[in-house]
Amino acid sequence: MAAVVLQERISFLTPPYYTMDAYVGATTARTDIHIPIVQKNNSGWFSDLFLHNLNPQSASVTLTFTPAPGKGTPYAYAYAIAAAGNCASTPVTCGSWAACLSARCR
Amino acid sequence: MSSSQPLAVAAAQYNGASQLMELSSTQPLAAGLYAPLIQNNNSGWQSGLTLRAPWGNLPMYVNYYATNTNGWCGSEQPNMENPRIVYPAPKNATSCNTTPNAIFSAGGGMAASVNQLQGTLNATTYEAIATPAQSASIPKVQRDGCWNDGFVIMNGNGTAVNVTVTLYNRLHNSSQTPNTIVNQPLGPYQNLTVLGQIPYGFDGSALVTADLPVAVVANAYRPGSAGVGDFIGSYPASHR
């Protein structure tokens, strides 16, 4: 089976703004994942990360952020995600990746 | 991101209410990555590349191929520190046409995303493809008054391949499904856009097969939606 997720949003601005993008369902879960680009207030761009633990055991996860040259310092956070649980981050509302993820992992 | 248990990850990028880009953790690290669609000032669309390697500051290379040159049309070497950004892409390959493809190469495994931006309106991204395959599935193909979906097939091999595209109607209630709409050779390092070959009114999925591995990226495209905004979503096909 193959699956694609389409996410569409219509804002209530004037004029109404439509946004959409798509991603394909992952066929293989992995223990080592590299996200090529993550943004936090970079010319108005922000990123959200969503982690899904598919397993019957809890997962110990470390997120390591590597800044672009001259754009901050590297940092890492460790989390536990419950069996079949997930984590989500929204740095706009949480202020930091650590606050987002620690508050919303389950 | 490292974990004691295998995870699936989705990453979204957004700019206010107007632009959204998403990708998922479908591609493993690889020393060679394939980008079937680079937009080189194509009707205002411009691509940017972000490459990341966990093994440090060894060189990476981007080679572009285009139909107008019948092959290689230029190359460049991103900066040496992660993340390695090329914007616009191509930056130096001036002989490429508006829709070249690209192969990223390095001495070790890497991951890369291909961003596509049309000014401050449309934005989308896809992961460069690590594992081309002889079969690739596109789950959603729809051409009607709302959607104008298509996809791009890339032959990253040094020899020609024969590619076949078969459409499957969503409801399986049509005498037109399965329907083979493409069966043709594709030259080395060439790409093939499949859009106009899809009958208007079609709603279903597509399967690309080839006699050598190919890389496929799909575009879910919704032109003319209410208001203004961001209408396109790119994603790698499911390669098997």
Average the pLDDT over all residues of chain A and give the rounded result: 88
Number of extended strands of chain A: 8
Oligomer: heterodimer
Shape verdict of chain A: globular
Features:
heterodimer, A: 106 residues, mainly beta, three-stranded antiparallel beta sheet, two-stranded antiparallel sheet, 2 helices, 11% helix, globular, B: 240 residues, Hypothetical Protein Tm1070, Chain: A, eight-stranded antiparallel beta sheet
Task: Tell me the layout of helices and strands.
The complex is a heterodimer of chains A (106) and B (240).
Chain A: E1 4-10, E2 17-24, E3 30-32, E4 40-42, E5 45-53, E6 59-65, E7 75-81, E8 86-88, H1 91-94, H2 97-104
Antiparallel strand pairs in A: 1-2, 4-5, 5-8, 6-7
Chain B: E1 2-15, E2 19-24, E3 30-35, E4 40-42, E5 45-52, E6 60-66, E7 71-76, E8 84-89, E9 101-118, E10 122-127, E11 133-142, E12 150-154, E13 161-169, E14 179-186, E15 191-194, E16 203-221, E17 228-229, E18 232-236, E19 238-239
Antiparallel strand pairs in B: 1-2, 3-9, 4-5, 5-8, 5-9, 6-7, 6-9, 9-10, 11-16, 11-19, 12-15, 12-16, 13-14, 13-16, 16-18
Structure summarized in a few sentences:
The complex is a heterodimer of chains A (106) and B (240). With 106 residues, chain A is mostly beta strands.
